[in-house]
């Protein structure tokens, strides 16, 4: 069944959401008439490839012409009128910017998939219900629309950069022509007019440079605002869902969608950086007093690399106890996986990660704790790194005596695995840090039930993923929360639900 057929079978509340994002940019009539053909095209790839986007736009218009021919035979006057109007609007609006129509259609298809996923997502207990809200869905839509708008704005500044290059070439040609003129010609009226023309071109060039830099500055500001506010909120929501998954609840999908947003923004910033490099080349060839490029470029390039990207995709877990994540036994290996929330080939093997335990110096990690992220570590081509052979070891006492291995450990004491991440790109070094959810250390398997109870208590009660002093003053868990967790645990023990994906 096609995606569009699935959409049409949704409940009315979901159909109303679908209706909101179809407008004159991409009318629903076209989506309906060309459903299968539209779904068979790679609009995502075309949104980054002008040649491919041009071909798809031409094919879209051809498909419309074929539909017009069909309905003309049926003498459906209203549909004929609408299709002619739509064709005229599409050709006029996207003829000079075919990648924009690819962005629009790609976003619509992605939004449909999101709504279909939401419609098929079962909601049960109060904890699961707390993860679902109309405000969250609305924020997700706003994020995707803003990402698409930023990407389109960068395409516009790309055209501005090319226009500036052409304008400067014309200015350079005219200026060199004057320089080669005879002295007698330089005093002529035509020469004076040419000088005035050059001055007007220089004024226009200066205005366009300032305008282009202003647009780029605004794009960087909007990208920074989106990354550090709305997208971080989305990521926090996903972390909360991950907490619930760690104690047996469902892990709703969405990390790939988040990664796609981060990736599109990073690609836009990389494209903007290349545009800034072109502007620098233009300024090197021709500068003047008050040239804005040398003043603004360096700071703008630096702002293109302000990221918050590493994320603990799979929380620490002992392979011997896959249904008890976040409980670690000393001298027993555990695995943990980190993922970079942008998917760019140029970053492959350029991201180094060092794993350690929180800074209380009571424990150290044995095994290979420094690795490079690689696309080979992931099935979907994401940049990931998985530590498979780490072992926590308790340090010897400060008195230099025998270590504390085997002695009683407080199962309400929380620790975290910290990841120091270093990204080397285009001569720059970017240092970032992230941490796992709190873990409980044990020295004997007899402590496992109490440790697991602490993990459940923590993740049921708080959204804070880094509160290592939670048990100094823990809040009570409600009966409804405990009943829901018990249901998850029962399902898990009967192999109907697995939590080792957290």
UniProtKB/TrEMBL annotation:
It holds the Pfam family STAT_int. Residues 262-289 form a coiled coil. It comes from Rhinopithecus bieti (Black snub-nosed monkey). It comes from the Eukaryota. It is found in: Cytoplasm; Nucleus. InterPro entries: p53-like_TF_DNA-bd_sf (IPR008967), STAT (IPR001217), STAT4_CC (IPR046991), STAT4_DBD (IPR029839), STAT_N_sf (IPR036535), STAT_TF_alpha (IPR013800), STAT_TF_CC (IPR015988), STAT_TF_DNA-bd (IPR013801). Residues 2-122 form the STAT transcription factor protein interaction domain. Keywords: Coiled coil, Cytoplasm, DNA-binding, Nucleus, Phosphoprotein, SH2 domain, Transcription, Transcription regulation. GO terms for biological process: cytokine-mediated signaling pathway; immune response. GO terms for molecular function: DNA binding; DNA-binding transcription factor activity. Its main location: cytoplasm. This is Signal transducer and activator of transcription 4. The keyword Cytoplasm applies. GO terms for cellular component: cytoplasm; nucleus. CDD domains: STAT4_CCD (cd16854), STAT4_DBD (cd16848).
């Amino acid at each position: 069944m096609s995606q569009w057929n699935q959409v049409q079978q949704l409940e009315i509340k979901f159909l109303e959401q679908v209706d909101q994002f179809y407008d004159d940019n991409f009318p629903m009539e076209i989506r309906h008439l060309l459903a299968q053909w539209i779904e068979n095209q790679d609009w995502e790839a075309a949104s980054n490839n002008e040649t491919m986007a041009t071909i798809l736009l031409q094919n879209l218009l051809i498909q419309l012409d074929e539909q017009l021919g069909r309905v003309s035979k049926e003498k459906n006057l209203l549909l004929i009128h609408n299709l002619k109007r739509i064709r005229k609007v599409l050709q006029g609006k996207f003829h000079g910017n075919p990648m924009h129509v690819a962005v629009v259609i790609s976003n619509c298809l992605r939004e449909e998939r999101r709504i279909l996923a939401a419609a098929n997502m079962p909601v049960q207990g109060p904890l699961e219900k707390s993860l679902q809200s109309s405000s969250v869905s609305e924020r997700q839509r706003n994020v995707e629309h803003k990402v698409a708008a930023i990407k389109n704005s960068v395409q516009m500044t790309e055209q501005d950069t090319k226009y500036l290059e052409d304008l400067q070439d014309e200015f350079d040609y005219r200026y060199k022509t004057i320089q080669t003129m005879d002295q007698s010609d330089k005093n002529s009226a035509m020469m004076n007019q040419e000088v005035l023309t050059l001055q007007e071109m220089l004024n226009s060039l200066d205005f366009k440079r300032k305008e282009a830099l202003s647009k780029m500055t605004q794009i960087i500001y909007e990208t920074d605002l989106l990354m550090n506010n709305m997208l971080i909120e989305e990521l926090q929501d996903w972390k909360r869902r991950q907490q619930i998954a760690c104690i047996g609840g469902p892990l709703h999908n969405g990390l790939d969608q988040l990664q796609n947003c981060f990736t599109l923004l990073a690609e836009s910033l990389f494209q903007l950086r290349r545009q800034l490099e072109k502007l620098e080349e233009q300024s090197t060839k021709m500068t003047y007093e008050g040239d804005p490029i040398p003043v603004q470029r360096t700071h703008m390039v630096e702002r293109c690399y302000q990221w918050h990207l590493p994320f603990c995709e799979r929380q620490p877990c002992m392979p011997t106890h896959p249904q008890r994540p976040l409980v670690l036994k000393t001298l027993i290996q555990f695995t943990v996986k980190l993922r970079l929330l942008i998917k760019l080939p140029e970053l492959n093997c350029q991201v180094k990660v060092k794993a350690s335990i929180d800074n209380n110096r009571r424990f150290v990690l044995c095994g290979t704790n420094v690795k490079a992220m690689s696309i080979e570590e992931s099935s979907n081509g994401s940049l990931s790194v998985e530590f498979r052979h780490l072992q926590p070891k308790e340090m010897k006492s400060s008195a230099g005596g025998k270590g504390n291995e085997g002695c009683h450990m407080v199962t309400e004491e929380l620790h975290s695995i910290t990841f120091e991440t270093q990204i080397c790109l285009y001569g720059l070094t970017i240092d970032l840090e992230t941490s796992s959810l709190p873990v409980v250390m044990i020295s004997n398997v007899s402590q496992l039930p109490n440790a697991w109870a602490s993990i459940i208590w923590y993740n049921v009660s708080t959204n804070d993923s880094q509160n290592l002093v939670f048990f100094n003053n823990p809040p009570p868990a409600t009966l409804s929360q405990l009943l829901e967790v018990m249901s998850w645990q029962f399902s898990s023990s009967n192999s109907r639900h697995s939590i080792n994906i957290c």
